[in-house]
């Protein structure tokens, strides 16, 4: 079990942090925890995972910047050797609001991180995992969103579009890599209690939308992490190209 090497992008807070800690509990022995700004949160999450027995490398990198992705993988290789499992999680929404009023630079930043960044992170992972390239196989989980199918009208349609891209990418890549030892799946969280909502400027969003959810509450980051860990694991050995909704029925 300890020969697995897991990377979680955006692993310092929210869903990513829950994946890091959940993976440590599940026996992943070597975890590369990426973050970009909040070093204290990264340290706290790493400490929790180390207390569970995992070796954790904290690697600062903006995965919206290609050069940072190259460095993130080089540092992971040097510390742990080639990656076997990836949670492609880092993502932002931008400020909530009408599409016509959105700042074009912010739209570009969301696409750079949520789409281009996620694709380039997956590309580096595939180069290391593919049995056609000398790797030992692996599993990739892309973090999508229910926004991809709901559209996020009036909130952040550009973010919804970025996650729609992730759903298409997941299906295509899963089929492309099916005979190279790599399973590729996505998890589509619904309304999950993390900092991302306040960061979008939509303070009170969780409370406002909770009654519209069939299960009548927001989900937790841990509940998303459980789905991620299932898809990462051999328990999901026949599952590839799936987008698993974790959305309370939304
Ligand atoms: P969050 O609480 O805001 O945490 C975001 C994490 O990503 C932090 O660790 C942050 O690190 C990191 N990050 C942000 N920008 C980054 C960058 N450029 N490079 C590397 N790391 C970066 O967000 P979350 O709610 O857990 O969301 C995680 C994923 O789930 C995202 O892809 C999001 O779109 C998706 N999702 C969330 C929800 C929800 O309701 N929460 C629903 C559907 C989908 P720093 O602290 O260092 O910035």
From TrEMBL:
Top-level taxonomic group: Bacteria
InterPro entries registered for this protein in UniProt: KR_dom (IPR057326), NAD(P)-bd_dom_sf (IPR036291), SDR_fam (IPR002347)
GO terms, biological process: fatty acid elongation
CDD domains linked: SDR_c
SMART domains: PKS_KR
Domain Ketoreductase: 4-190
Database matches in Pfam families: adh_short_C2
PANTHER family (UniProt xref): 3-OXOACYL-[ACYL-CARRIER-PROTEIN] REDUCTASE, CHLOROPLASTIC (PTHR42760:SF40), SHORT-CHAIN DEHYDROGENASES/REDUCTASES FAMILY MEMBER (PTHR42760)
Protein name, as recorded: SDR family oxidoreductase
Organism: Xanthobacter dioxanivorans
């Amino acid at each position: 079990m300890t020969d697995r090497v897991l990377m979680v992008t955006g692993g310092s807070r929210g869903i990513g942090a829950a994946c890091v800690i959940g993976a440590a509990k599940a026996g992943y022995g070597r975890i590369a925890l990426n973050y970009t700004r909040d070093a204290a949160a990264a340290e706290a999450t790493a400490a929790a995972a180390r207390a569970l027995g995992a070796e954790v490398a904290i690697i600062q990198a903006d995965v919206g910047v290609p050069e940072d992705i190259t460095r993130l993988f080089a540092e992971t290789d040097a510390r742990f050797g080639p990656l076997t499992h990836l949670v492609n999680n880092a993502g932002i929404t931008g400020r909530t609001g009408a599409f016509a009023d959105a700042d074009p630079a912010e739209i570009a930043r969301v696409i750079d991180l949520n789409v281009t960044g996620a694709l380039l992170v997956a590309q580096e992972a595939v180069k290391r995992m593919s049995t056609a390239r000398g790797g030992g196989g692996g599993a990739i989980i892309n973090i999508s969103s229910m926004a991809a199918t709901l559209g996020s009208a009036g909130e952040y349609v550009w973010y919804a579009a970025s996650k729609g891209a992730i759903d298409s990418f997941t299906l295509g890549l899963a089929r492309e890599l099916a005979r190279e030892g790599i399973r590729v799946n996505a998890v589509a969280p619904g309304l999950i209690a993390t900092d991302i909502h306040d960061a979008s400027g939509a303070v009170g969003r969780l409370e406002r939308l909770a009654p519209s959810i069939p299960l009548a509450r927001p989900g937790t980051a841990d509940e998303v992490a459980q789905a991620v860990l299932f898809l990462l694991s051999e328990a999901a050995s026949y599952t590839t190209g799936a987008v698993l909704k974790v959305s309370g029925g939304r």
